[in-house]
Design goal:
The chain is mostly helical. It is built from four helices and no strands. The model has no long low-confidence stretch (mean pLDDT about 95).
Amino acid sequence: MKKVEDIVGLVLNIAPKKIKNTTNPDNTPEWDSFSGLTLVTELEKIFNVNFSIDEVLSVRNVGDIKKALRKHGVKV
């Protein structure tokens, strides 16, 4: 199974090793609104989950992505 950092890195076109739980749109110029939507789509597809709009809106950083995935039973 792919790691969250690998998926974020692929979508944002940055090295996965540079991605931390604190990585967010404010400290990562590559993370704009379009790439954010792409990230949601890729995460849902790869981990076979469906995020609610509330979950999507509550995500502020990579750590929040992991928390949302855990709520769906994904081990990250």
